[in-house]
Backbone:
């Protein structure tokens, strides 16, 4: 099933292209402009068009946006049908960089599943890539101070290039 925003965008686009009567086509064109503003604000689920209050989104999930819900009613979408549409959800957070390093150190200390230094270096290099990718999606900032500290240790151990020589 599509999301509410996707359903509205495709419906308004279809209406703009195929509706008879100038008034209906103009209404659809106006709705598409509203949809361009009221969209998901990645990486969050918030509605970008609803804005923020003291850095907290006014609408935490795009599917709860009052503008989109009112617009959906105008296109005949009922609350029952809206309930069947997909709702964007937050991705599940994986272990932090520090968690993985701590786990590897614990395995080494207790002799469980001994890892070679190559295994550890490979894991750290892969995690460096994941943290860097995550930071790039967040505008270049690492959000978790624990990850930041672990990243500094890993860079010191592997060198600035993340062990990719």
Residues:
């Amino acid at each position: 099933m599509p999301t509410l925003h996707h359903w509205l965008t495709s419906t308004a686009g279809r209406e703009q292209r195929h509706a008879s009567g100038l008034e209906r086509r103009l209404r659809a064109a106006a709705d598409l402009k509203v949809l361009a503003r009221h969209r998901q604000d990645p990486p969050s689920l918030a509605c970008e068009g609803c804005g923020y209050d003291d850095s907290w989104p006014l609408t935490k999930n795009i599917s709860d946006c009052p503008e989109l819900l009112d617009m959906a009613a105008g296109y005949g979408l009922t609350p029952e049908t809206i309930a069947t549409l997909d709702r964007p959800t937050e991705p599940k957070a994986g272990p932090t960089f520090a968690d993985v390093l701590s786990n590897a150190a614990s395995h080494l200390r207790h002799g469980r599943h001994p890892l070679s230094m190559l295994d550890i270096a490979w894991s750290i290099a892969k995690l460096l890539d994941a943290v860097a990718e995550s930071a790039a999606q967040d505008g270049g900032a690492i959000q978790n101070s624990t990850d930041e500290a672990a990243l500094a240790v890993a860079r010191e151990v592997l060198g600035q290039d993340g062990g990719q020589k």
About this structure: Helices lie at 4-18, 22-37, 66-74, 79-84, 97-110, 117-137, 145-158. The longest strand covers residues 52-53. The CA atoms of residues 16 and 26 lie 7 Å apart. The beta strands are 52-53, 56-57.
